[in-house]
Write a structure and sequence with these properties.
CATH architecture of the largest domain: 3-Layer(aba) Sandwich
Order of helices and strands: EEHEEEHEEHEEEHEHEEEEH
CATH topology of the largest domain: Rossmann fold
Number of domains: 2
Shape: globular
CATH superfamily of the largest domain: Nucleotide-binding domain of ferredoxin-NADP reductase (FNR) module
Structural class: alpha/beta
Radius of gyration: 17 Å
Strand order of the largest sheet: 10-9-8-7-11-12-15
Distance between the termini: 29 Å
Length: 254
Amino acid sequence: MNLFLLDAPITSKRQVARGMFVIGLHAPEIANSVRAGQFVNLALSPGPLLRRPFSVYRASADHIEIVLKAVGAGTAQLLALEPGDRASCLGPLGRGFELAAGPQTAVLVSGGLGVAPMPLAARDARAAGMRVTWVHGARTAAELCAETDGETVIWATDDGSQGTAGTAVAAAPDAEVVLGCGPNRMLAALAERWPAAQVALETYMGCGTGVCLGCAVPLKGGGFDRACKEGPVYRAADVDWSALPTHLSYAVTA
């Protein structure tokens, strides 16, 4: 798959949950080739900001969208961008979800900012002939993403303020295909219930191209992978979850 480095203008910005925004960029080359679970690396153009990885949230003929929450200096600088500003956009990067065609049900399980790859996953699952159930969880109703995509949508909140009280993993029904994204603690629980599930890891990615080795993922069979090259999507049972931190990704925390 081709890799593109674009000086991409910001085209839209909207809030979808407390502190969570969707940013649109004009990036036709990436939009036409990206698959669910892949990501882009963004930096200010021009600017000193190191690149930050973001799963592609949606893609159209000439635009892509990413989900962003400012919890550090780097993401705050990106979130300060307005339509007409520009960002350096590298992508599509990484290995996405593998979806075999067939009349089956895909359950998408996301927690917090793990919502990021799910609209694109819903698109690709439907294209493969599947029905989509989306289960999204957060700490409170205010932190749930207001945008949904699925024939069935199930909410879960830690405090019970909307939908099922508890975790998204506990609220999810069984299905032939399970895709997950969220905090590593959530994905570890998902791996216990569905070892064959595909999960998009949230982890530190410095360069996004496999050079810096900052995104090493410990494997159950021994050794390490690079999330930006061999991932970020993995079979849940293949990851050594006990050796991964439980916090959210670098893109979320910096």
